[in-house]
Amino acid sequence: MVSRGGDGTDLAVEFKIIMTKDKKEKSAQSVENRRGFLKKLWIGLGIVALVEMAGVIAAYLRPKKQKADAEILGRIITAGSADNFEKDSVTAFRRGQFYLICLDDGGFMALSRKCTHLGCTVPWVASEKKFICPCHSSVFDISGAVVQSPAPRPLDTFLVMIENGIVKVDTGKKTKRSTFESSQVVYL
Ligand code: FES
Question: Quick check: helix, strand or coil at residue 168?
Fold first, then answer.
């Protein structure tokens, strides 16, 4: 405690002490503010990190196949001009997961690549002119009809549309069938 003297020196000392005290208080307050700011910053960063982590986990848990199917199915794929496809030909469209068939009479069909037995991808074997499943040897002809079991039914078809000479396939419209019928073929 500083006693008040008669001259100005004591006042100056007291003033200095008050200023120093005030400075210390301000400094302490500033440190406190900084701590508060840093605390809020860390909480904010923590929340951002948690949200990002939740996003990564959700993306990881989402079935990849389902995601791929969602991207592929439900789209209309433009296959190209009908003139570009030779008669009696099979063209694979990986993006749409189908084969575009141009039969020997010029009719078009779009066949699913999935075997109707257990869903394996069925390749077209050009040398045999057949679809032969590598899993359990089911065989399908060019129209997708079963030539050899265990496949229980023909390959599924997708809707084919021909607009102004352009062949389009609606991969969102898949049809199961029990047999091949001429009504499944689309002409120009
Ligand atoms: S999945 Fe094709 S024959 Fe079994």
Answer: strand
Nearest atom in ligand 1 to 118's CA: 1
Q: Are strands 130-132 and 139-140 parallel, antiparallel or unpaired?
A: antiparallel
pLDDT at 154 (0 to 100): 98
37 in a domain, yes or no? yes
- Helix (H) / strand (E) element for 79: namely strand 76-81
Q: Between residues 96 and 148, which one has the greater pLDDT?
A: 148
**18-70: per-residue pLDDT in tens?**
666 667 777 667 777 778 878 888 887 877 777 777 766 666 556 555 555 54
Q: Which of 85 and 56 is assigned the larger pLDDT?
A: 85
Looking at the fold, whether 29 and 119 belong to one and the same domain comes out as no
Q: Does 3 reside within a domain?
A: no
Tell me: do 99 and 179 sit in the same domain. Answer: yes
Q: Out of 113, 130, 135, 149, give the residue to mutate to test ligand 1, the one with the largest number of ligand atoms within 8 Å of its CB.
A: 135
pTM, entire model: 0.62
Nearest residue (by CA) to ligand 1, atom 4, is 136
- pLDDT value, residue 110: 97
The token pair at 1 is: 């405690």
Ligand 1 shell residues, CB under 6 Å: 115, 117-118, 120, 133, 135-136, 138, 150-151
Task: Measure 53 CA to ligand 1 centroid, in angstroms.
Answer: 40
Which residue's CA is the closest to the ligand 1 atom numbered 1? 118
